[in-house]
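Listing S7. Sequence submitted for prediction.
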Amino acid sequence: MADKEPKVGAATSSSPSVTPKSLVTENHVRAALMSDKGAAAQLTAWKVVDFTKKGDNYTCLVTSVEVKYEIDGKSSEVVYVVKINSGKTFGGENMFDLFFEKECKFFLDIAPQINSALREIGHTEINVPKCFHISLEKGKEVIFLEDLRARGYKMADRKQGLDEAHTTLVLRELARLHAASLLLQNKTPDKALGEKYPVLKIGIDYFVNNHDGLLNMIRESATVVQTIMKNVGGYEKVTAWIDTIIPRIADIFSEQLQRGEPKVVCHGDCWINNLLFRYSETGHPEDVMLLDLQVVNYSSPAADLNYLLYTSMTGNVRKPNIEAFLGSYYTTFKNIMEAAGQTVPFSQAQLLKDFRDRNLVGTIFTIMIVPVVLSETEGAVDSSKNDEDLEETFRKATEKALENVDANLLVKSRLLSVFDEMMELGIIP
């Protein structure tokens, strides 16, 4: 028998407030263990162990559960990563319940169908964590996922950004997700996936247009970036252009993310913080896992491509490799379609055009994300705090980023590389 340890989980009368530990219950642990190891697995002990740091998570709480169990008298251990609906607000509005529901629906309904489509053509399943248990009990929503650390996956350095090898891995996995969802769509051509799975109709454009707190945050980020560019000097075109987009941000999201065909299942939030990589003994990235499917939606493939390429790498990686990156994506997409005996509904040239047609929203993604995520550690959003509205948390982090910008050459170089590119392309006139 395994040594008994204190079981942490159910809230007690002495609990001053709801905490991550009080929301993870023994029933949840038992359900996850049975799903993972089978009915013969007997739970002997478990405990909640936090492992994330400031800036790792934004919309939900993430912790882990270390589990001891027995099968046929043999003791074993396993660790699960647990995501918990934070119940946080943004600008006084609770939009994160819907974020959490979207991810749950992805694992429950959408991922199994996408994986089935891939297995039918002899391909491996999409690279997302295995899901062992979901509870959607109101106010106590949790998801139990596999602990990818056990398989050697880890985060890349978000300040350094993705290099060519990392980026190519991500693009190929996005292509597999997008193409497999198109195979799924083609099975029921008379009914769009957005109708079959209503959560897919709710993307970032929905949240921007329906939650003033998020819209205000993006506008404030634009103002901060404008101040940075004024301090840099010589970018009067950029500062003037930012004045023109601030009142149009909601419309830009709708126009750029809703139009165009084909539509596919997009990750919706594909940037360096939502990826884990596995490496060879020599340190070369060999595989990638897509995380945090909370903004999964039904949109143009170019939406995911812009999000990734303009938030997660330096300009000297992105700009000279755009066509090669899109070529890697296209080749993988084409291989999936051809394995199913179907044709790709766009050419590589059309993919590049679609990508360029959405560079405007790609630039706004840069404005939203880069200043905060590249700020110093003390400016990172602390996801462990439940008592503060996230709009205020982001405001503090943005202010911190502005305070530190003179010393943070990384923020400047990332912004300048994007703005230089967009002026060259005519996106910024």
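Caption to Listing S7: primary sequence and predicted structure tokens for the chain studied. The two ends are 71 Å apart (CA to CA). Residues 1-18, 377-381 have pLDDT under 50 and may be disordered.
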